[in-house]
Specification:
- It contains 13 helices and two strands; from the N terminus they run ααααααααααββααα.
- A two-stranded antiparallel ribbon has the order 1-2.
- Helix 4 runs antiparallel to helix 7 and helix 6 packs antiparallel against helix 7.
- The structure holds fe (ii) ion (FE2) (2 copies).
Length: 330
């Protein structure tokens, strides 16, 4: 989900770069306006390329870092069935990261550069993964809310203007639906269980609700890159539109299983056909973006350790490929 957070203020983000052939720019913009996909070998403005590299690589990082909070619970899942389901889900997220790194590589950036940017702290990933998973109910809340928010973000990206990104999203979205349902099913079981189990589910909803609606990124009037991204059809809906949709579908789901969304200002607004909701604490959001999330350091350490410990696997795979290539040549 991960992607509209990228609309946050970023001084380095280019809006337009001078010196490009106006005829090429006009032809490019006409293709985008006609809803054609832009493919890797097509001419594209440099700012479009950079915006996409940033967005797709941050999306990829979010998928990979997103494995960590749930990976914490694989050994503690309450039954073999839950363990098998969670294992499949976490593995899917790894796959999403890999499709997305491949899509970003088609724009001329290497996997190593992207991984370096993540490990050095230069690249961002979704702030939601810097919150800890304290109880089993958090695994339910993540699937239901975090994957649910990711779906809201990613369904429109199946029509994003860059072909490889759009196609990666088609498969990712199918898998995200399964993730959302497995999370909701965990919440449903807990909410219908003992009073302690129900309290655990409510506590998880209380802690994950606000970070989840922050996943859609800053409000539209404070999202400077959004207008250009909408024009280039990298983004298809604004942050606030997506957030509103998410709140509107999720509140009835909470009510259906007897849980309460932790927002005293939440009220149905018949005129707009949607919920009005309370003010979001953007200070908290920007603090987490700056890396001050409760477990941000732990997450990055886990990533770097995994990278170092996996060095022998990468070396073995390269050596195997070299041997095969030599054999083919012979
Ligand atoms: Fe995913
Ligand atoms: Fe997911």
């Amino acid at each position: 989900m991960y992607t509209t957070e990228l609309g946050k203020p970023d001084a380095k983000a280019p809006v337009a770069i001078g010196g490009e052939d106006p005829a090429l720019v006009a032809a490019f913009e006409a293709r985008v306006a006609a809803d054609e996909f832009i493919e890797p070998k097509d001419w594209m403005p440099e700012a479009y390329r950079r915006t996409l590299v940033r967005q797709i690589s941050q999306h990829a990082h979010s998928e990979i870092v997103g494995m960590l909070p749930e990976g914490n619970w694989l050994t503690r899942a309450p039954s073999l069935r839950r363990k098998a389901v969670l294992l499949a889900k976490v593995q899917d997220e790894g796959g999403h990261g890999l499709y997305l790194y491949c899509a970003a590589e088609t724009l001329g950036t290497s996997r190593d550069e992207m991984i370096d940017a993540l490990h050095s702290g230069k690249a961002k990933y979704s702030t939601i993964f810097n919150y800890p998973t304290l109880t089993w109910a958090d695994i339910g809340a993540i699937g239901w809310l975090v994957d649910g928010a990711a779906i809201m973000n990613q369904v429109p990206l199946q029509r994003t203007s860059y072909g490889p990104y759009a196609r990666a999203m088609v498969r990712v979205c199918k898998e995200e639906s399964f993730h959302q349902r497995q999370g909701y099913e965990i919440m449903m079981a807990l909410a219908g269980g003992t009073p302690d189990q129900k309290a655990m589910a409510q506590d998880a909803l209380n802690r994950w609700w606000w970070p989840s609606i922050m996943m859609f990124g800053p409000p539209d009037d404070n999202s400077p890159n959004s207008a250009q991204s909408m024009r280039w059809r990298i983004k298809r809906d604004t942050n606030d539109e997506l957030r509103q949709k998410f709140v509107d579908v999720t509140v009835p789901q909470a009510e259906y299983i007897g849980l309460t969304v932790p927002d005293p200002d939440l009220v149905w607004n018949a005129d707009k056909g949607g919920y009005d909701f309370g003010a979001i604490d953007w200070e908290e959001f920007y603090a987490v973006v700056r890396g001050e999330g409760p477990v941000a350091k732990e997450r990055m350490k886990a990533r770097r350790d995994a990278w170092d410990e996996g060095a022998w696997v990468r070396e073995a795979a390269s050596a195997y490929e070299a041997t095969r290539a030599a054999r083919r040549a012979a």
